[in-house]
Amino acid sequence: MDNPELSFNPILLLVAILLTVMSSYTALDLFSLIKSSDRNKRFLFLGGTFSLGIGIWVMNFFGMLAMNLNGNVSYRIPITVLSIILVISFTAMAFYSMTGKSVKKSNMLAGSLFMMLAVLVVHILGMYSMRLDFSYQPPILLIALTLVFVSFYFSFWMLFFSKSFTQGDHGWIKPLSALFVTAAIVEGHFLLSRASSINISNGLVEQTGIPESLISYLIVFISVLILAGLIGSSALISKRLAVSDTNLKDITDALNSSAIVAITDPKGNITYVNEKFIEISGYSEAELLGQNHSILNSGLHTKEFFKDMWKTIGSGEVWKGEIRNKKKDGSYYWVDTTIVPFLNSKGRPYQYVSIRSDITQRKQAEASLKETLKEVSDINFALDQSSIVAFTDEKGIIKNVNDKFCEISKYNREELIGNDHSILNSGLHSKEFFKNLWKTIGSGQVWKGDIRNRAKDGSFYWVDTTIVPFLNENGKPYQYLAIRNDITEKKKSEEMLHRQDKLAAVGQLAAGVAHEIRNPLTSMKGYAEFLQLDETEPQRQEFIEIILDEIDRVNNIVEEFMVLAKPKAVELEEQNIIPIVQTVVSMLKFEARKRNVKLDFDATEEIIQIECDENRLKQVFLNFIKNGIEAMPDGGDLKVRTEIQDDNVVISIKDTGVGIPPETLKKIGEPFYTTKKNGNGLGLMVSFKIIESHNGKVYIESEQNKGTTFKIMLPAKTA
């Protein structure tokens, strides 16, 4: 065994290094296109791995040729081909581990390991292909492999991972990385060569050298391959740049056609505006360039608004918002604005691109809508304050009510919504009445009328009602709006005026007739009594008694006529009304028990002072309570109650009798109208007249089979 003296051919060595640099750069160029390309990824990957693999093999092959081994070596082609295949395979595995969306440190460690193995494998097989008997010195081999691994790791870290290198647009990163990769390959070849001990056996090795002409041809062939790779990658990059330029031009044209674009420097001075900016602002390009956007300030937005905007874009973040600007002619326009900061290598903005859209019409529409909504809101507020409002669906089911509806009906919203208006039916109006109502609104016409409703507590109230149907595209109602006004007091006043008119009419009749009737009655009664004194026959005595009774009955009627015609002067005195009512209730207790009627009296106050004529009020209470007792032939409950309401005393007399039909209720108080067999129809009329003389009012509420309530309202004395 001989240990040959190693020396190197500098020309071959320089060629090897140059070819490796070209291969490394071509490979990195192709690999950099993989992530940014949607097509030809497989071609780019294969081209890159082939280029770098050939670069590693070239460095090892020509490095071996550059060594002067006294011409005692020759190459075995099969092993050489195997070395090329293996080095390309290891290179492919190295770069495959780093082709993901994100390159992690673990990926770079794996890639560096595979590249180190590629360098080691090509060196070992290169030795075998030259029929050399060699061995490695373990310490030097370990150091060599470690240095190769670290070199590859550093080059990959610089290329894929380091923020300081990858931030910004650095065109020198790729060439520098190619130099580091080449350095790692060259370093690997020399260190592994130094780590190996080579022995040549003259008896076993074929003494054949490689002609220099073949080496020259081989160098040219490999150079052509590498140059073809460089030209191919350059062509791909040029094509990508051309497509990018076309896309950029198309995007720019589209942006200029649809948006208002401006570019400013870091201080906000305008450096570029497009045609739409000039068109909408009314300024020329010369007037805008060099100015800042304060030239368009409309004065609407506060300083704080712009301060926050500059704070956002100055920190490198995108700002979005709506701004009102002022044109050159003084008119205003609104723009939806997006400001994008472009950052330099230090992460600071070096320019801003503002993209705006004209939203003036939308803003005007919003302002108009806002004004309309305010008007609607004002109308709704006014309506809610003055009217009782309810919405129903096409079937009459209540969907919404206002506070006044709840207040007057005494139901809460939860009890009303989902029900129809039958919940308020007082029973006064006929089925035909509601049938006509629905026929009107169902045909899309507005209905107006007066309706008496019943509140949750059983009390009645009148509403002046307007029902408006809302029609769909087919002309059919899809909901109804009912607007009501409380006319309960108006109805009571009309009823009172009606009664007063009746009283006035009866009074005029009484004034003309009462005196003429009373004188003959006096004579008739006197002569009848005189005849009774001399009459002894029982039957004739009975006839005279009947005549006298009928004369008294007629006389009572005349007396009531006289009260209506010329009521006695009312002598009002301040008294406590509670004892007056209690006295009348006590007087009728016995009669109530006889008729199986439970008579109760309740007073919320012990003393309620009023100005009244005690005897005449007693006559009214007596009349109303007796009517209540007689309205319950089978017995029942009669409740008399006094309470204070709004500076008035209210005396309510409520029975549980048969009630009064609606058509009869309208006639109550008319002269000579009575439901009693022996009544003359003047008792209630006289009672109403007495209450009127006390500046009071009488209200009657009745529901058939449930009872009747007489409410007497008199002014109370305030302290």
Offer a quick outline of the entry.
It is built from 21 helices and 19 strands.
Characteristics:
disordered N terminus; five-stranded antiparallel beta sheet; 719 residues; 19% strand; alpha+beta; 21 helices
Report the major sheet: 5 strands, antiparallel
User: What is the tally of helical segments?
Assistant: 21
Instruction: Using the CA coordinates, give the radius of gyration.
Output: 58 Å
Mean pLDDT: 78
Question: How helical, in percent, are the residues?
Answer: 40-55%
SS elements, strand count: 19
Q: For the record, give the distance between the C-alpha atoms at the N and C termini, rounded to a whole number.
A: 142 Å
Provide the structure class.
alpha+beta
Regions with little confidence, pLDDT below 50 for 5+ residues: 1-7, 68-72, 163-170, 201-210
The order of strands across the largest sheet is 4-3-7-6-5
Instruction: Assess the beta-strand content as a share of residues.
Output: 15-25%
Shape from CA axes? rod-shaped
Write the layout of secondary structure elements.
Layout: H1 10-36, H2 41-66, H3 77-96, H4 105-129, E1 133-136, H5 138-161, H6 163-166, H7 173-195, E2 196-199, H8 212-258, E3 260-264, E4 270-273, H9 275-281, H10 285-288, H11 303-314, E5 319-326, E6 332-343, E7 349-358, H12 360-386, E8 388-393, E9 398-401, H13 403-409, H14 413-416, H15 431-442, E10 447-454, E11 460-471, E12 477-486, H16 488-534, H17 538-565, E13 573-576, H18 577-594, E14 597-603, E15 609-612, H19 614-630, E16 636-645, E17 648-655, H20 662-665, H21 683-693, E18 697-703, E19 707-715
Parallel strand pairs: 14-16
Antiparallel strand pairs: 1-2, 3-4, 3-7, 5-6, 6-7, 8-9, 8-12, 10-11, 11-12, 13-15, 16-17, 17-19, 18-19
Helix pairs in contact: 1-2, 1-7, 1-8, 2-3, 2-4, 2-7, 3-4, 4-5, 4-7, 5-7, 16-17, 16-21, 18-19, 19-21
